[in-house]
Specification:
Elements: E1 5-8, H1 12-23, E2 28-31, H2 35-45, E3 51-54, H3 57-62, E4 69-72, H4 78-87, E5 96-99, H5 105-117, E6 121-128, H6 130-136, E7 139-143, H7 146-159, E8 162-163, E9 166-167, H8 177-207, H9 211-222, H10 229-237, H11 262-273, H12 278-291, H13 293-302, H14 313-346, H15 352-358, H16 369-379, H17 390-412, H18 418-430, H19 437-448
Parallel strand pairs: 1-2, 1-4, 2-3, 4-5, 5-6
Antiparallel strand pairs: 6-7, 8-9
Helix pairs in contact: 1-6, 1-7, 8-11, 8-12, 8-14, 9-10, 11-12, 12-18, 14-17, 14-18, 15-16
The structure holds 6-phosphogluconic acid.
6-phosphogluconic acid is lined by residues 102, 128-130, 186, 189, 258-260, 262-263, 363-364.
């Protein structure tokens, strides 16, 4: 019973995470039903003397020091419950189980209450950064019992990514706070990915950028204010040769985007909360439209589209950089707004500055912008929306005109850019003191006597409209 940390699920993420734990001076014991995975880990981690593994749950549990700290990196859903049931009879009071997968937040709440009754502490901890993040330093988003977190903290702080020496992990809040934050992280991820692909489409169709130019452009952007993991990998993607044929791989990839559900959950829950996140919603819808490839091919033949008026490369590139920066800001603003509201609704007591802070490195949505966002929420802990931060006004104001030009250009030329236009529309609506929704209230009262309020006096009114 000497190992500091236990990990169930020795897939790529699990194996990498455990090796990362060992690299940072802690001993770690792995468990998986698949003996091949167990042996692969022992071989890979053997020389460190700090890693061991077994396919037997009892051996695994007996190898761990108490209170046991056991992380699960298994697919979200029923498997998590099955693993918990399997471990439960072997555990002692105050042992800690950490679910590192993308579990749905209400599942985490259910497991948390169930395990609390048995004296076991449960954490939902989102882990972002893919396989290399798990190996070299992910961003970790843990939620659960604050006191129990103290046992996990030294290990998580050691293995996490560092931003200027600061660990990209912090205790976020009770119950499913960590899974909720990771879910919204993924919603933002969907939004940013959609935006980078719209910009790619515009550069390619509107400016005839070839893959090499796209590679150069995204790479240049990555050394400016758009610096981010997603812009960086986008630049690298355009440089990748196709090993199975001529040209670049990106042109051979089927344009149907898959999804595992976290982006959709973000949108669904935003609707439940009544918080608008249209830049995320449309990213989910676009994956759905992309999946309708056969229908799209049929429809393409039925309708004309305008001939594209080309724009000069330098002008287009400048508009694109500004529009991407603008819409990245809007997307983060929406996701963080959702987190602030969810925090009130579910009692998470989230600190938005702390969340932005642990997203600055390690995770998929890491970006230079997150340092600015952290500062904005540090300056005003109760900021309802990033767009209200004095430090963001200039960034947004100076890029919105280019976004208008680009969205108008895209509309005129039949290039779909719903992420950009939803971001712009969100901005225009959010910054309008008067919207035409007075008419909707009138219509509701007209056909359903739903009543309305007035600008000029208090109270609730109903009118017998002239029919
Ligand atoms: C991360 C990612 C990861 C997610 C994938 C795939 O933060 O490391 O968000 O958790 O599972 O990106 O998501 P989709 O399959 O839904 O695109």
């Amino acid at each position: 019973d000497t190992y500091d940390f236990g990990l169930v699920g020795l897939g790529v993420m699990g194996r990498n995470f455990i090796l990362n734990v060992a690299d940072n001076g802690f001993s770690a014991f792995g468990n998986d039903l698949d003996l091949d995975k167990v042996n692969a880990l022992i071989q890979e981690g053997g020389d460190t003397q700090k890693v061991n593994a077994s396919d037997d749950a009892k051996t695994f549990i007996e190898a761990l020091s108490t209170p046991r700290k056991i992380m699960l990196l298994v697919p979200a859903g029923k498997i998590v419950d099955a693993v918990i049931e399997n471990l439960l009879p072997l555990l002692d009071k105050d042992d800690i189980i950490i679910d590192g997968g993308n579990s749905y937040f209400t599942d985490t709440d259910r497991r948390d209450s169930y395990l609390a009754e048995k004296g076991i502490h449960f954490f939902g901890a989102g882990v972002s950064g893919g396989a290399s993040g798990a190996r070299l330093g992910p961003s970790i988003m843990p939620g659960g019992n604050r006191e129990a977190y103290q046992h996990v903290k030294p290990i998580f702080e050691a293995v996490s990514a560092k931003y200027k020496g600061e660990p990209c992990v912090t205790y976020l809040g009770p119950k499913s706070a960590g899974n909720y934050v990771k879910m919204v992280h993924n919603g933002i991820e969907y939004g940013l990915m959609q935006l980078t692909s719209e910009i790619y489409d515009l550069l390619k169709k509107g400016g005839d950028f070839n893959n090499n130019e796209l590679h150069q452009t995204y790479s240049k952007w990555n050394s400016g204010r758009l610096q981010s993991f997603l812009v960086q990998i986008t630049s690298e993607i355009f440089a990748q040769d196709d090993e199975l044929g001529e040209g670049k791989l990106v042109d051979k990839i089927l344009d149907k985007a898959k999804q595992k559900g976290t982006g959709k959950w973000t949108s669904q829950n935003a609707m439940d909360l009544g918080i608008p996140v249209p830049s995320i919603d449309i990213a989910v819808s676009m994956r759905e439209i992309s999946a309708l490839k056969d229908e799209r091919i049929t429809a393409d033949k039925l309708y004309d589209r305008p001939a594209i008026e080309h724009m000069d490369k330098i002008t287009l590139e400048k508009l694109a950089e500004e529009a991407l920066y603008f819409s990245f800001i809007i997307t983060y603003a929406q996701g963080l707004h959702q987190l602030a509201d969810a925090s009130n609704e579910y009692g998470y007591e989230l600190e938005i500055a702390e969340i932005a802070k642990i997203w600055r490195a390690g995770c998929i949505i890491r970006a230079g912008l997150l340092a600015d966002i952290t500062e904005a929420f540090n300056a005003d802990k109760n900021l309802p929306n990033l767009l209200l931060s004095p430090s963001f006004i200039k960034k947004v104001q100076s890029t919105v005109d280019s976004t208008r030009k680009l969205v108008a250009y895209a509309a005129k030329n039949g290039i779909p850019t719903p992420g950009l236009s939803n971001s712009l529309t969100y901005f225009d609506a959010y910054t309008s003191s008067r919207l035409p929704l007075n008419l909707i209230q009138a219509q509701r009262d007209y056909f359903g006597s739903h009543t309305y309020e007035r600008l000029d006096r208090d109270g609730v009114f109903h009118t017998e409209w002239e029919k």
